[in-house]
Write a structure and sequence with these properties.
The protein is an alpha/beta fold. The chain has nine helices and seven strands; from the N terminus they run ααββαβααββββαααα. The N and C termini lie far apart (52 Å).
């Protein structure tokens, strides 16, 4: 896509598009004196903006539908969804290990599909946002493959090269199972905010049990004003 085509796609003027891409806000590549853009990468970027996985920096007309389900994190995530110490030390290995967990928990119907869909998304735009964090999800919503909305979590104490924006190893991996085509899962937008505090990251790295990781994330969610209302939270205390 050209700058003109992208401006029409985002319903922005060309000057705004040039400013955003030159500042690194919109993914693109400069060939000679001309900017070029891949639609698949832009759609992934738009999804991340709408989900709150990356900070929203521009008001885009392609907005999400009004929320219809107010899911709290506890309805999609349990201590059993946590891998305390990942064995994998490569990007593909981490994806496979966490997809295996989702499959064992019967959260996805087809493990092979889930692995491929996550890697497809990684190939277009890496999910590691820096600061040791990665938020993995598929490019599209797949109600036929995902049993219910879910999150699984893995931690690597040694860190894994995940093509993070800051060039540093990634330690904490959140894998999101998105069942619905509409982007109306509020808990997705909460995750980066929940992990924005240094104290939360330190607690997640120092935790010795899955229950303590679950409790740390529930505390972070409660600090945002939306506590986990789930029996498993009581059990984790």
């Amino acid at each position: 896509m050209t700058v003109r085509q992208l401006a029409a796609y985002l319903n922005l003027n060309e000057r705004t598009v040039l400013k955003l891409v030159s500042e690194g806000e919109i993914p693109g590549v400069k060939i000679g004196n001309q900017w070029r853009f891949r639609k698949a990468m832009l759609d992934a970027w738009l999804d991340d903006q709408m989900l709150g996985v990356t900070p929203r920096s521009v008001d885009i007309s392609r907005t999400a539908p009004a929320p219809r389900r107010m899911l709290n994190l506890g309805s999609c995530f349990q201590p059993s969804h946590i891998v305390l110490d990942l064995e994998a030390n490569t990007k593909t290995g981490v994806v496979e290990e966490l997809a295996n967990l989702a499959s064992r928990l019967n959260l996805v119907k087809d493990k092979t599909w889930f692995v491929g869909a996550l890697i497809e998304r990684e190939n277009i735009m890496p999910s590691a946002t820096g600061n040791g964090l990665a938020f993995l999800h598929t490019l599209n919503r797949h109600p036929e493959h995902v049993v219910k909305p879910f999150m699984v979590f893995g931690r690597s104490l040694g860190g894994v090269d995940f093509d993070a924006l800051d060039g540093k190893p990634t330690h904490l991996f959140f894998v999101l199972g998105l069942k619905y085509h509409e982007l109306h899962l509020p808990w997705l937008a909460k995750l980066p905010l929940m992990c924005s505090r240094t104290e939360t990251l330190q607690t997640l790295m120092a935790a010795t049990t899955a229950d303590s990781i679950f409790a740390a994330l529930s505390d972070a969610e409660r600090d945002l004003g939306t506590p986990m209302t789930n029996e498993s939270l009581k059990k984790s205390r």
